[in-house]
Protein: Type II secretion system protein H
Organism: Teredinibacter turnerae
Amino acid sequence: MVNRQAVAKLRLKQTSKRALGRALNSVMKSIPVNANQSGFTIIELMVVVAIAAVLMVLAVPSFEDSSAKSAVRAGVNNLQSDLAFARSTAITRSRPVAICASDTSAGRNCGTGDWNEGWLVFLDPNSNGALDAGEELVRIGSALGARVSISLDNPVLFNGRGMNSAVSEFVFCRAGSTEAMYARSVLVNLGGLVRASRDSDGDGIHNGGEGGGNLSCGG
């Protein structure tokens, strides 16, 4: 179902910016220009300062939105790449390979589901999804930072043919936000194929899962 509230919010923001732009342009044109005047009057300076203040108010949220979306996209790309690498390694070496959330407080060990701290890719011959003594660690994923949150608790396990033990979907959101406009996902199907979500219906919200429904960020 289309998240009408999120779409309406996006359209209102775009409309407000266009209206403000037209208003500011009108104000600037209304300021009289005196060819013999060597500087600005106090009124003109006040108008310029007011315009600058309004532009700053608009620019800061826009920059924060852009920065948050960029952080989410980077997280999606990094995890998607490492999941594909894990599957490729499993096929190439004909051995089970797992990828789990990293527990930074306990060194290079699998954690309890906080993928924001990074992840580990390792050969997992006993297929238990945990990095046991003697198992080969083949890649370490970097922490994502405070701007992004990921929802998924379980490790992903590829068998020697590159197939996944269960459908896994990582949902990325802007940390502290429930707005669906930030949601992105990485899906690993039973065949082991890895794909990122996309906005397939053009409503401003990405579609995820095998059913293609709108993603959400809780709330």
